[in-house]
Amino acid sequence: MSIPAASPSTPSTTGVAAACAGFGRDVEENLAQVAALVDRARAQGVTLLALPEACLGGYLSVLGRGRDGSHDEQPDDLPPVMDLAGPELRRVAAIAREMTLVVGLCESDGAERYNTAAIVSGDGVLGAHRKVHQPLGESLFYAAGDAYGAVDTPAGRVGALICYDKAFPEAARALAVDGAEVIACISAWPGSRTASGASLAEDRWTRRFNLFDAARALENQVVWVASNQHGTFGSLRFVANAKVVGPGGDVLATTGLDAGLAVAHVDVAGALETARRAMFHLRDRRPETYPGDLARGLPLAVAEPVRA
Length: 308
Hints:
Blueprint (H helix, E strand, L loop, with lengths): L13 E8 L5 H17 L2 E5 L30 E2 L4 H10 L3 E9 L4 E9 L2 E7 L20 E3 L2 E7 L6 H9 L4 E5 L17 H17 L2 E4 L1 E2 L2 E2 L2 E2 L5 E3 L5 E4 L5 E7 L1 H9 L32
Parallel strand pairs: 1-2, 1-11, 2-4, 3-4, 8-9, 9-10
Antiparallel strand pairs: 1-16, 4-5, 5-6, 7-8, 10-14, 12-13, 14-15
C-alpha cells in the first residue's frame, strides 16, 4: 500500500517526487507519458521529479547471458540512441518549464552507447550521469561511465545515479561530498530471475531495492528520490516501489507496487540541518584512516558465480 504524500508545499518546502511507470520503445508515447506525469506532479506542487531509467526509449528486454552464463538470451532490439542536445531532450525541457526533471535515455558519444540520466529544466540539460555500475549482461550493450557530479538546479543541488549504482556506497558518497542535497536514483530494477518470491512484495530484489534506498539516504543524510519502471518489458518484471526517503532513512512517500507518483514536500535545508545536527556523517568521516587501495581493491575471493 502506498504511503500518502506529505502535506502541501509551503514557501520553505520543496515538492519532490519519484515516478513509477512503464516505458517502451515508442518515443512519442514515452514523451506523452512524461508530459502527463509532469502535469500531475506540477498540480501537486512538485518542483523536482525523477522519472524511471530509460524512460525516453525503453530499457533492455533481457539482460543477456548474465555473469554465470545461465541465460542465453539476446534482446530483439536496443533502445534508440539520443543526443543530449537533440530534439527529444529539447522537448523534455519544454515540458519541464519551471520544474527540474531527471530522465533516462540511451546516449552516445559517437563511439559508445551509454545508459544516461539527464537533469533537465526549462533552460535545457543542466547535467548528465552515465551509469557506472553494470549488472549482469548490461555491459554487452552499454559502455560504463566513469564520473560523478552534482549540479545546481532550480530545485537545489542535485546528483543523479542509475539503478545498480545504488548498490555501491561510494557512488552516492561521491555526490554527497560534491554537495548534493538531493540524490535522484532512477531505475529499471527487476525482480529476481532465480528464487523469486511468490509475489513482488516478497521478492528478494524488492527488499534489496528498498534497503539500498534507505541506507544511501541515511549514510549520506540527503533526500533520496528513487524512481522505477513498472510492469513488465520483455523478460523483465519490475519491482516498482518508487519513493522519497528523508535524510534519516525514513520513507516519506512510496508507490509500493503500484504505478503512480510518490510525492513529498520537504524543507530540504531544514531536514538536512536537523539530521546532521548531532551526528554529521560527512563531517565525521576519517578519510586519512581509510586504506588508499579501498577504492581500487578487488574482492579477495569469489566463492561462486553471482546470480540475480
